[in-house]
Amino acid sequence: MIKVNKEQNGSELYISLEGILDTPATPALSDALEGCYSGLTKLVFDFKDLEYLTSAGLRVLLTAQQEMDDIEGEMIIKNVSDDIMEVFELTGFDDVLTFGE
Amino acid sequence: MYQIIDINEDNLELYTSYLGEDLAENIGRSYYRGLVAVGDDGPQSGMVWLVKHLDEEADTESNIIWVRCDAKEAFDQMMEAYSERARSEDVVRSHVFIPVKGGKEMKAMLIEKGFNMRLSESDVVVVKLSELSEMPLMKKLKKAPIPDSIAPLNSLTLRTFRKGVSKCVMNGKYGLCEDLSELGIYWFEDEVSCVSSDDNGINGFFLFHLRPSGVMAVQLLVCLDNTFKTTLPFMMRQFVTAMEEKYGPDTLVELDRHNEQSLLLTEKLLPRGFGIPIYAGGRNE
């Protein structure tokens, strides 16, 4: 179960996630991101209330990162828990993503 | 100016350290090709690729599986030589896969050479033996006895092995080995690799190769009949049990999700498993 909160401020989009980003939940995030990239310069994810993510969630993040790379925009992930950071490190995602405070 | 050299079994020793042992051991196999650009200080750029569908009706393609650059000019000359080699073998399209880790510069250079590079997920999932052992599915499988139909590879005669390989090749099941019919049984680690058999002979293979670095890498994971939903998990169980007896818990196991069956099995066994992030690209030749 995931709650996706979107907030757009000009060319910057902020998405905070609450709950678990697993296979059943990823369509909600994918839908929230669909069509948003045009004109975007910055995409920020806030993981403060994200408990857990699975490989399905990683795939959505990978796609989002590629989309932002395509438009030469910036994607940042904030407030990553130690558990989730461990997943990123084990999967090599720490080389793909940019993290912020 | 750099000297462009085709790597082969005769000169391999000169370039093994540049390629790395795991890659170098494949040079000499039918579908593997390698190039280095050598300057006064030794190799300054190198690449290894696999030619696919060379002897089939389908378009010939190339998978560049390793590329290294220590001097831009060497890389440029090497890539020109690669284009010539690709044309001479009627390669229609080249694909390239490089790890994201340390790959940003190479990505830019490959884009310059016409490859459309995109972030992707590798088919390869690398996991420690201890993690495999602890997976819920594995623990569940260990509660049941291994069926008599499943046995280690070293219990097979050469003749039976070859018959099984022929069956796979006839069904178009090569796994990661385009040259499966040419590889000897010795290529596979025969204590941890296993097979499944029925009254008609071999109906499943779980073949692994031990790389020089100590990584145990899947080569072929297939069940040829509709028992795959039970056969494959038990072959995995046989593999893990054999691994535990022979290798340490930190031994790395490389699972390449090269077909639907291996994808489904890996997803079931490792629900959080994710292939290493890569840049994947292609270009027409």
**What structural class do helix, strand and pairing data of chain A support?**
alpha/beta
What does the largest sheet of chain B look like?
Answer: 7 strands, mixed
Number of helices of chain B: 9
CATH hierarchy, class of chain A: Alpha Beta
Count of alpha/pi helices of chain A: 3
Walk across the major sheet of chain B and give the strand order.
Answer: 1-2-3-4-5-13-6
Straight-line distance between termini of chain B: 24 Å
Oligomerization status of the protein chains: heterodimer
- Count of domains of chain B: 2
Q: Any idea what the radius of gyration of chain B is?
A: 20 Å
Q: In percent terms, what proportion of residues of chain A is strand?
A: 35-45%
Low-confidence stretches of chain B: none
**CATH third-level topology of chain A:** Transcription Regulator spoIIAA
Largest interface: A-B, 14 and 14 residues
- Overall pLDDT of chain B, averaged? 92
Characterise the protein shown here.
- The complex is a heterodimer of chains A (101) and B (285).
- Chain A has a single domain, classed as STAS domain (Transcription Regulator spoIIAA, 2-Layer Sandwich), CATH 3.30.750.24.
- In chain A, helix 1 packs parallel to helix 2.
- The radius of gyration of chain A is 12 Å and the shape is globular.
- Chain A is an alpha/beta fold and 101 residues long.
- Chain A starts with a strand and ends with a strand.
- In chain A, strands 1-2-3-4-5 form a five-stranded mixed sheet.
- Chain B has a seven-stranded mixed sheet with strand order 1-2-3-4-5-13-6, sandwiched between helices. A six-stranded mixed sheet of chain B has the order 7-12-11-10-9-8, sandwiched between helices.
- Chain B folds into two domains: 113 residues, Aminopeptidase, CATH 3.40.630; 145 residues, Aminopeptidase.
- With 285 residues, chain B is an alpha+beta fold.
- Chain B is built from nine helices and 13 strands.
